[in-house]
């Protein structure tokens, strides 16, 4: 007969088994609420539930996922729906899934990055006899010894927030975040200096050094410590403890409300409260009295000589229940997600070539009570408003004229310290090119321009052999994914390629963006390009490429390559925005480059200026430097040529098409692979079965640089003289024979800058040396272009270029 346990005993055994299972769970797998965190404990970045809570549960220390960009090791308010972050350890470098924070046996607090395998020491407390860590109910995370003395604490290393019972000592700095959702160090700082003065500064962004002080306590020599006491007052005290000045204050009770003071991304230090009641509105409350915000009006407080001001270059700051940024008529935000970056012109600036003043092509838009202090280069008084208008119209440098009571200020871009304020009484006359503003998209002219530009970009990308190879590899991955996951309606690539900074679009989103894929821009063997406008991104124009074929390729190699490209982010690279991998649909979405390819710009009818060409050459080199040395995985582009360099709204060079890219691991300096690239730009080592290094890109760049300098293609079969057919050979002959003027027919600007022109030629000759060891690294190349490294006389680059044409 079977033995049956009594029901009460059965329940007891079940409870014991449950407790045993809970004890066996990994320490980092569940949120902990222990007062003391023992040595050897760790947390893993898996989701937003990986944390250690304070005893009351009001604060937590652990990992917070920031959008789809990665994880932040942070401290936050844990009992409110909006888990407001008050401290972070890695704001400038988000971590990928699987990263860990470890309190090791030596009492050190370590942060392990899963993507790079690098280890960051957060608290060097080895040998200090750390006994445990604790997340306190004050919001302070501490390492303590057996006597509960704090050996390290987050309160003494604040980021952008102060909490009750926290103090700010001399030399301590709060940095504003870059935006409301980007926690990296931004454009403003709050610090108690060693001399006792408490100040708010702008920074030399992206550096974090102090620039312009826009608020001061004026307590030099006596200020000692900023104290946030338990009653809710924040004051500056002297060394003997006496109160010098109240910094911020709030009358809300500390028992019924959560309190914090935060230096926000817009540069304003604000006092916030949040009701603890479950019946509350669930939002942080801001009080706008002078005791709960500094400065009272940041728009008029900032007037700096260097930097754009409260809202960036060309931007306008308006104070209405706190500052808000906007762009003047005819301008738009450089980055709608970061309005403090400033504004750009939506039209081509007036020409200064001297042949025509173009006065009939421009008009003025008026904005009242609008000014950009310290941006003027001329002032005339007393004059009429009409005289002021005509003077600005005839001056090719003039972007805006301010007029007030007979005074006329003439201003050029970039405009600084912009503000809209009733107290200034000035009228801004903003000069805009007629019929050329993208702020009026309904005009037929604008629609035609955008359509033709998109067609150009689409054809450039489709015609690139590198892009086609990238598509082939991408299709392979998608087919393999579809085979293994064909039962699922949507394949989620994030599950197999973690850490990609790409948007996963639905097919319906892209179908709507392209109006049913109706407006075709270009077609190739492997993809069709359509015009698209993302409704979810303020109508942002994109190039949408629908793939239609597959090849066999290594899935692992593709994953590594796509993962690396998805993580790249540099102003001189074209950004892959996202993709769709839904059912049978395989679609790529690329950033839109409004000015087409460098090939069209160099060899078309526009004839770019020497200054523009120098900036494009430098920008392209900086993009290569990022790929070779600064991104997490070294990338050899393998197909640098003018068709693969695109130009954005400001004619900034952006490298595109990573389709042929070859990745190098961090411990590699070279690799081997089949021949890749485009005839004329391919380095000799491709043909000699030599190891491939980043120097192949340097060679290709050298040929490209010669084309940029001389405004002609690397090979012209119909050249007037046979000696001029191959650009590299002809340019070197002219250099040796001191006949550089032959290279620059009808280019007076370049001829008048003959010293720099010769230097750029010498750099190009160094880049195309047949021996890779003679070519400069991309770092040295960039420094030579910038003028910080001398350029020595180059040897003859040999006749290799002619042998492969």
TrEMBL record:
<dbReference type="InterPro" id="IPR008271">
    <property type="entry name" value="Ser/Thr_kinase_AS"/>
</dbReference>
<feature type="signal peptide">
    <location>
        <begin position="1"/>
        <end position="31"/>
    </location>
</feature>
<dbReference type="Pfam" id="PF01453">
    <property type="entry name" value="B_lectin"/>
</dbReference>
<feature type="transmembrane region" description="Helical">
    <location>
        <begin position="454"/>
        <end position="480"/>
    </location>
</feature>
<feature type="domain" description="Bulb-type lectin">
    <location>
        <begin position="37"/>
        <end position="156"/>
    </location>
</feature>
<dbReference type="GO" id="GO:0005524">
    <property type="term" value="F:ATP binding"/>
</dbReference>
<keyword id="KW-0325">Glycoprotein</keyword>
<dbReference type="InterPro" id="IPR000719">
    <property type="entry name" value="Prot_kinase_dom"/>
</dbReference>
<keyword id="KW-0472">Membrane</keyword>
<keyword id="KW-0732">Signal</keyword>
<keyword id="KW-0245">EGF-like domain</keyword>
<dbReference type="InterPro" id="IPR036426">
    <property type="entry name" value="Bulb-type_lectin_dom_sf"/>
</dbReference>
<dbReference type="InterPro" id="IPR001480">
    <property type="entry name" value="Bulb-type_lectin_dom"/>
</dbReference>
<comment type="similarity">
    <text>Belongs to the protein kinase superfamily. Ser/Thr protein kinase family.</text>
</comment>
<dbReference type="InterPro" id="IPR011009">
    <property type="entry name" value="Kinase-like_dom_sf"/>
</dbReference>
<keyword id="KW-0808">Transferase</keyword>
<keyword id="KW-0675">Receptor</keyword>
<keyword id="KW-0067">ATP-binding</keyword>
<protein>
    <recommendedName>
        <fullName>Receptor-like serine/threonine-protein kinase</fullName>
        <ecNumber>2.7.11.1</ecNumber>
    </recommendedName>
</protein>
<keyword id="KW-0547">Nucleotide-binding</keyword>
<feature type="domain" description="Protein kinase">
    <location>
        <begin position="515"/>
        <end position="789"/>
    </location>
</feature>
<keyword id="KW-1133">Transmembrane helix</keyword>
<dbReference type="GO" id="GO:0106310">
    <property type="term" value="F:protein serine kinase activity"/>
</dbReference>
<dbReference type="Pfam" id="PF00069">
    <property type="entry name" value="Pkinase"/>
</dbReference>
<keyword id="KW-0812">Transmembrane</keyword>
<feature type="binding site">
    <location>
        <position position="545"/>
    </location>
    <ligand>
        <name>ATP</name>
    </ligand>
</feature>
<dbReference type="InterPro" id="IPR017441">
    <property type="entry name" value="Protein_kinase_ATP_BS"/>
</dbReference>
<dbReference type="InterPro" id="IPR051343">
    <property type="entry name" value="G-type_lectin_kinases/EP1-like"/>
</dbReference>
<dbReference type="GO" id="GO:0016020">
    <property type="term" value="C:membrane"/>
</dbReference>
<dbReference type="GO" id="GO:0004674">
    <property type="term" value="F:protein serine/threonine kinase activity"/>
</dbReference>
<keyword id="KW-0418">Kinase</keyword>
<keyword id="KW-0723">Serine/threonine-protein kinase</keyword>
<dbReference type="InterPro" id="IPR024171">
    <property type="entry name" value="SRK-like_kinase"/>
</dbReference>
<dbReference type="GO" id="GO:0030246">
    <property type="term" value="F:carbohydrate binding"/>
</dbReference>
<keyword id="KW-0430">Lectin</keyword>
<keyword id="KW-1015">Disulfide bond</keyword>
């Amino acid at each position: 007969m079977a033995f049956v346990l009594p029901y009460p005993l059965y329940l007891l055994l079940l409870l014991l088994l449950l407790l045993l299972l809970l004890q066996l769970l990994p320490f980092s797998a569940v949120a902990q609420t222990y007062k003391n965190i023992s040595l050897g404990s760790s947390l893993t970045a898996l989701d937003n539930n990986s944390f250690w809570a304070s005893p009351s549960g009001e604060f937590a220390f652990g990992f917070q996922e920031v959008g789809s960009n990665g994880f932040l090791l942070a401290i936050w308010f844990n009992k409110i729906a909006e888990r407001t972050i008050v401290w972070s350890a890695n704001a400038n470098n988000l971590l990928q899934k699987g990263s860990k924070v470890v309190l090791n046996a030596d009492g050190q607090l370590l942060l392990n990055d899963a993507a790079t395998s690098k280890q960051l020491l957060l608290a060097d407390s080895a040998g200090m006899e750390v006994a445990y860590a604790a997340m306190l109910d004050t919001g302070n995370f501490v390492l303590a010894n057996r006597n509960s003395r704090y050996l390290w604490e987050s309160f003494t290393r604040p980021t952008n927030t102060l909490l009750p019972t926290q103090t700010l000592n001399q030399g301590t700095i709060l940095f504003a975040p870059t935006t409301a959702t980007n926690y990296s160090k931004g454009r403003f700082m709050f610090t108690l200096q060693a001399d006792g003065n408490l100040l708010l500064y702008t920074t030399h962004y992206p550096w974090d050094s102090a620039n312009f002080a826009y608020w001061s306590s004026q307590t030099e020599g006596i200020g000692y410590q900023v104290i946030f006491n338990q009653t809710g007052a924040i004051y500056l005290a002297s060394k003997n403890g006496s109160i010098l000045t109240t910094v911020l204050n709030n009358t809300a009770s500390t028992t019924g409300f959560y309190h914090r003071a935060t230096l926000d991304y817009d540069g304003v230090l604000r006092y916030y409260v949040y009701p603890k009641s479950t019946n509350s509105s669930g939002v942080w409350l801001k009080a706008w009295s002078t005791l709960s915000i500094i400065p009272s009006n940041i728009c008029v407080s900032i007037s700096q000589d260097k930097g754009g001001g409260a809202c960036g270059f060309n931007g306008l700051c308006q104070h209405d229940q706190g500052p808000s940024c906007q762009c003047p008529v005819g301008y738009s935000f450089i980055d709608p997600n970061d309005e403090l970056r400033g504004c750009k012109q939506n039209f081509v600036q007036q020409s200064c070539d001297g042949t025509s003043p173009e006065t009939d092509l421009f008009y003025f838009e008026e904005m009242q009570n609008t000014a950009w202090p310290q941006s003027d280069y001329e002032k005339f008084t007393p004059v009429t408003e009409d005289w002021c208008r005509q003077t600005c119209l005839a001056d090719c440098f003039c972007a805006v004229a301010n007029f007030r009571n007979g005074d006329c200020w003439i201003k050029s871009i970039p405009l600084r310290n912009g503000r809209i304020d009733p107290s200034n009484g000035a009228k801004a006359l903003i000069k805009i090119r007629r019929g050329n503003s993208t702020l009026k998209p309904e005009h037929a002219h604008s629609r035609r321009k955008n359509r033709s530009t998109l067609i150009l970009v689409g054809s450039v990308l489709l015609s690139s052999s590198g892009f086609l190879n990238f598509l082939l590899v991408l299709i392979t991955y998608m087919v393999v994914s579809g085979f293994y996951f064909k039962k699922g309606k949507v394949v989620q690539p994030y599950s197999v390629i973690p850490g990609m900074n790409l948007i996963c679009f639905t097919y319906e989103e892209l179908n709507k963006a392209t109006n049913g894929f109706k407006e075709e821009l270009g077609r190739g063997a492997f993809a069709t390009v359509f015009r698209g406008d993302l409704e979810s991104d303020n109508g942002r124009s994109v190039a949408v490429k629908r793939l239609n074929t597959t090849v066999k390729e290594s899935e692992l190699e593709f994953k590594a390559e796509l993962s690396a490209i998805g993580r790249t982010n540099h102003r001189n690279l074209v950004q892959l925005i996202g993709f769709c991998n839904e059912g049978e649909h395989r679609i790529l979405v690329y950033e839109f480059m409004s000015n087409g390819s460098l090939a069209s710009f160099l060899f078309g009818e526009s004839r770019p200026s020497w200054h523009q060409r120098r900036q494009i050459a430098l920008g392209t080199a900086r993009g290569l430097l990022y790929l070779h040395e600064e991104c997490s995985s070294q990338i050899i582009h393998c197909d640098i040529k003018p068709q693969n360099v695109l130009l954005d709204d400001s004619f900034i060079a952006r490298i595109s098409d990573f389709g042929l890219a070859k990745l190098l691991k961090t411990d590699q300096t070279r690799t081997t692979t089949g021949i890749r690239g485009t005839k004329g730009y391919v380095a000799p080592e491709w043909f000699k079965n030599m190891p491939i290094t980043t120097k192949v890109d340097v060679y290709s760049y050298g040929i490209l640089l010669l084309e940029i300098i001389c405004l002609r293609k690397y090979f012209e079969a119909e050249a007037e003289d046979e000696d001029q057919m191959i650009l590299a050979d002809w340019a070197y002959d002219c250099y040796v024979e001191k006949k550089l003027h032959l290279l620059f027919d009808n280019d007076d600007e370049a001829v008048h800058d003959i010293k720099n022109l010769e230097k750029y030629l010498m750099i190009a000759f160094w880049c195309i040396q047949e021996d890779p060891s003679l070519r400069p690294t991309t770092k040295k190349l960039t420094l030579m272009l910038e003028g910080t490294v001398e350029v020595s006389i180059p040897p003859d680059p040999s006749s290799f270029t002619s042998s492969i044409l």
